[in-house]
Design goal:
The protein is an alpha+beta fold and 134 residues long. It has three helices and nine strands, in the order αββββββαβββα. It starts with a helix and ends with a helix. It comes from Actinoplanes sichuanensis.
């Protein structure tokens, strides 16, 4: 699973979360940093309100948490979501011993990103792509 630090870097670089069922997220700075939540039809849903999109926590009175603004939540994208976000720049994923390597191509130039996990390598590639677009 992608860590909070990398997810924060992606968000800061401009990654926009379009919530879908099954997405994982955390709510930093509310003493919930270590809690990972999952959007589902039953317990945690995204609601459109006149004041903006919120994430509603249904039946979670033990946390005294009714809802949070979508912008307060930190999306923890899965490996498949990161790969999809790379779009047409993605070329390959290779595993060698304890290292995963992602190769991308942008405007004819190839880049290589390595990390201990596939999600980490995808995230590094996406972070590079997002910062290159700024």
């Amino acid at each position: 699973m992608l860590g909070v630090e990398v997810a924060t870097q992606l968000k800061t670089a401009g990654l926009v979360w379009k919530p879908q069922l099954g997405d994982r997220f955390t709510v930093p700075d509310r003493d919930l940093d270590d809690e990972v939540f999952v959007l589902s039809n039953m317990t945690i849903q995204v609601h459109d309100r006149p004041e903006g999109r919120i994430i509603g926590f249904n039946g979670t009175t033990e946390w005294a948490l009714d809802d949070v603004d979508l912008g307060e939540a930190l999306w923890l994208p899965r490996e498949d979501q990161l790969r999809e976000l790379l779009g047409g720049t993605f070329r390959s994923l290779h595993k060698d011993q304890d290292t995963h390597t992602v190769r991308t191509e942008l405007l004819g130039g190839q880049q290589v990103f390595s990390a201990p996990t596939a999600a980490g390598a995808y995230a590094a590639a996406l972070l590079h792509l997002l910062t290159a677009a700024q």
